[in-house]
Amino acid sequence: MQPRSVDPAIISPPHVRARRSRRRHHRVRWIVAVFGMVLVGASGYFAARLWRVVGHVANVSNPIQLIQQEIGGPAPGTLAYKLQHGQRVNILALGYGGVEDSGPNLTDTIMVISIDPASQRVFEISVPRDLYVRIDAWQDGRQYSAKINDAFSVPHDLRYFAPGPLKPEYRDKDGPGRLAEATVSRLTGLQFDRYAAIDFRAFRSVVDTLGGVQVCLDQPLDDNQYQFTRSSQVITGIHFPSGCQQVNGEQALELARSRTAIQPEQATDYGRAKRQEMIVSAIRKKVAASNALTTMLPLLESLQQNYVSDLQLVDVQTLYDFGKKLPDTATQRFPITGQDLVHDYPVNSRGSCGPPEAWVSCPEDPTYQTWHTIFSNLFVALPTLNENAHVQLVNASDTGDLHTRFTPILRNLGFQMSDGVRAKQISKTVVYDYSGGAFPRTTGWLREFFGADIIPVSPANAKAAPQPVQGEKTEGLVVMMGTDAARRWHGAT
User: What is the pTM assigned to this prediction?
Assistant: First the structure.
């Protein structure tokens, strides 16, 4: 039996219906305005420019579609519908070299944008390009292992990869993006709603169209090996001081690409990912402040030839409306690094999951179940975080660095973390509650996340916890991670 549909007008108060109606009418007027400019614009040239840009960037072939998409509202399950109804949305953002790079379709930037409209929060997850993974693209079931930045490249040129026909979903214009989505999804457990990929030229053009962006470096960046071409001449070396500074498109690209700086922290992929996140944030701020068509049209035109995405126009508009209202504090960052979820193996390292001649990053958990648990719990409920409980991890497992890897993960999720310590090995993870029950939500979250038992500790039953080791706290919440936590961390259970 089909469930009965309920008319929203029956259950919505009049003032709520009025607000929804005004918002929808505003969006329809915006769409009609664009359509109208195309039909009766001041010049045929301007109209042609506008429609060419809208059609390419927003994946619309017929202007009537614009109005049809808006009159009835977004369809259930679409990105716009989910954002408007408080449902989590995941977008995969990719940056690739394009014709200016020797590996034109390798994605040097892989970023997951996860949005929780219910709590008005956004997470940016940076995935290391050197992560060695399985790419499952072939119809006959064969698989290919490579660095994750190869996934977008596979459908573009099969000569460099495994032979055989691709699965049907990876054969059309969106095939490279869908394969990148499927590969990242297998690792994180997240299902993607849309993807967007931009190359070097479009990235540079977007920044220049916005009049540059401001970036703030916490340390200098001096890369004496970086090469770029200016006025047909090859120039070697880039230098940026620490502090806040305005950069143009070429300089933003230099910051985003550099990986051989003399500063150790700047020379890593993780340092580069941090700079990329900073630049993306700066671009987002500038775009949110740009409302005039005179700015938005050149901005969209800068993307037209060097950008590919399955975002629809209604998605772009909804994302814009949502993002421009968010403060900077709404965006949190979760870089996947060699200090937490992966282990880096330089060339000719023993134990690498990849070929010995390549630098690769290998997952600590090759089953990725730990990743799935973490990213499904990405948006910790705000009432839990607002308890501001002090949490410490004590490593009582048979894995020596478990506490040093898990502490930054929980810190990225928003918890107040003290540095962890090592202790004598135990089998079962427990949480010692020294707070007298002051943090019930945090205690409950830790119990579920670690599968732990909760043991209250008070002056009256001080012996409920073992004698603390040097550096171990006797306040707040202390998670004593046993060998069961280590087995889950390595995917053994």
Answer: 0.83
